[in-house]
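Run folding on both entries below.
>entry_1
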Amino acid sequence: MANRLVSDVMMRDFKTIDGVTKVSTALKMMKGEKINAVLIQPRNEADVYGIMTLKDIARKVIGGRRKLHETHVYEIMSKPVLSVSAKMPIPYAARLLTNFNVSYAMVMENDSVVGMVSLNGMVTQWDSD
């Protein structure tokens, strides 16, 4: 199983939201979908994707004593988002994410976002036989 690819463990049902969305709205959606991260849509052709995770909400909103319903996603998201190829072997993807100290990456195929991959997903679905 050591030759498994990112496409084998990626989340295909990822969500994207607009950066002006309130954190309270985004968090409600994340809870309902049972997801820990969302991609933030680029504002225009020159812009890039961002990402917001539960960790961002905890550290930057709650830890900063800010209000969920007064804070916009763009204020706390991380940008740009690390991206990996759907055809990248999982060991390389795991090393890349840990080298950059991030838990999530966008998965790209033919210049399109086709999913998201997490360290958690790679670890829990890894079977080195």
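>entry_2
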Amino acid sequence: MPPRPRLLRALRLAAAAALSPVLASALVTGLSAPAHAADPVEAAKALAAPGVPGANDWSCRPSAAHPRPVVLVHGTFANGSVNWLAAAPALAARGYCVFALTYGQVPGVPVLRAVAPVAESAGQLATFVTGVLAATNAAQADLVGHSQGGMMPRYYLRFLGGAAKVHTLVGLAPSNHGTTLDGLATLAASFPGALDLLNAGCPACADQIAGSSLLTKLNADGDTVPGVSYTVIASRYDEVVTPYATQFLSGSGVHDVLLQNLCPAGVSEHVAIAFDPVALHEVENALDPAHATPSTCLSHG
């Protein structure tokens, strides 16, 4: 059964309500790209998203149970502050060192982030991961990304040396093989001002259209790189990255998950999947497969 329109409207309203105070904070802080810093930790701190519960404690040291810090990578038009209001505290409560960045600012564009060229944003992710590893004394990190944040790290892994620094990449509704302009317009409708930006020019949006030169380059030699574990979590009701099966990856070390195979009643779509308890339970399973438990409609973080 397709998702009920009233429920989806409620989910979007909830996301918008959460977004409002964060937007105010964004206007104060600027959430701008950092200036060059010789200290990798300071460079990473300059990219850190403000006000994320459970995240960006730079004194955190990974435990033996969870030896790798988790870096959260938000999606197009969003920022790290709003995208991870559910996931960050849930993972922190499980004992992870959690870090969240905000990336992809375009000069002259207020508030909206993850709109810069994907390759440029991947460079910011590289800066952030390097700083997180330096701060935590960890050899590798795990990445959890939503939408563009699930695809863009693959550029970092393949072209910017990230494969040596990343153990696991988990993508929630990632744009791995692109989408249509209509799909991006649907996403933009959830963020004030995003439709105008999409119409005026959004480099990250152009990069995510199926068949773009960026995606052609990214996927030319296969979906994965050796040594990294991949999990993709998708929803049948995703109306942004369509068809939803294009989110899935092929190759060794890949685990593709369709939410409705775990909970047939689940109706989360593209935005809501970042807050979905079944999806977040699958994130936890991917980060700690040795202690994974079955995900069902009763799963919670």
